[in-house]
Amino acid sequence: MPRTSIPGLSKSWLHGWPLVGLIAVGLTAIALLHGGVTGGLGESGACTMTVQAADVVVRAAPSGTAQPLETLAQGENVAAEAIVDAGYRKLTGGERWVPADSVAATAGSVC
């Protein structure tokens, strides 16, 4: 089998830890370009929830006594995060929380 050489690269780059590092950088770049497991960096809406209850109050913190911000109607779709705290699901766009049992992931959503 003929040997292939790349001008400017010494043989030390083609084995051992330098090769492992080069492969790691390449795989990381591929994962970032193709969105990895999450479906893409910076994509909003990767986690979408459908409001299951009537008149769900969005609050400023994960608490039933936190300041109400708005009300969501049953069947409405909202962008959410994978964060659940004290029974409240965090919505995207700042500190916005709804009871976790009042929403459900939409079909095909990654939450």
UniProtKB/TrEMBL annotation:
Membrane spanning stretches: 12-33
Keyword Membrane: yes
Keywords for the protein's UniProt record, in alphabetical order: Membrane, Transmembrane, Transmembrane helix
Claim: Membrane is one of the keywords in the record: yes
The organism's place on the tree of life at top rank: Bacteria
UniProt-recorded name of the protein: SH3 domain-containing protein
